[in-house]
Structure prediction request, 311 residues.
Amino acid sequence: MLQPEDLVEVVAEPTPLDPDGRGRVMVHALDGFVDAGSSASLALAHLLETMEHREVAVFDTDILVDYRSRRPRMTFEQDRFTGIDMPRLVVRELVDTAGTPFLVLSGPEPDVAWERFAAAVRIVVERLGVRMAVGLHGIPWPAPHTRPVGLTPHASDRSLIAGRPRWVGDVDVPGHAAALLELRLGEAGIDAVGFTAHVPHYLSTSPFPPAAAALLGAVSELTGLQLPVDALHTAGQEVLAQVDTQVSDDEETRTAIQGLERQYDAVAAGRSLEGPGLLGPTLPADEMADGDALAADLERYLRDMDGGAQP
Prediction:
């Protein structure tokens, strides 16, 4: 049987830890699932574009990725193939704006061998002195774009997310490799935390920078890392302005969003910051925004604005 250590190779030693330090932080986000609004992928791409980084560990995607389900792009020039963009699952070391090194795990979600992948990540985590792993995710949410992006926190130790609102109770959800990683690292005694951004469901298929900014803000608040988010805030303001412009002249869509705002505000006002078991107030049925109708209205309006093109 293939061993976990066969899945990964440490290719460089990270910056030595401060003897008085508590260990490294590793941020992770895997492509392919739970990334509404490209929240996590936008956040990690922003970090890699704006911060120094180098590779320290590489996973074997030939074993972990099904290329037939996610076919790599190839370049064909006139009469021959000249290149291929193979997926890469990599741990990189970055340095924040205060000079503190940390790690980022990114790449495609493995199609197979999740347990061995999680065990291989644990090997890397223990070898590189990681004290905390933080996962980034995004899900569609019945929230208006006119409100701050909410976050669902989750952690192996509830004290790590104390004081943060719990938006959901007990629920069964489809499994994914990042969630299994959080579970297994927590079981191994390593602090494992995740933040899931609430992306307005009618905008969940397009890049939504406000969610990426909210995720990185939560990472900074939790870990003390100094992460740049100004560019994401600027991009988010531009996206929100565009959406406002597109819906301002459509009374039906505007009314639907106003209903969603009332619903969201009522639920938010009833939330406790102390635990997951409390429910917010409900609104009369005729004031509840219909999520499917809202999405259909907005998509129809955007198609009309764009001459019939798909939104």
The chain is about 35% helix and 25% strand. Residues 272-284 have pLDDT under 50 and may be disordered.
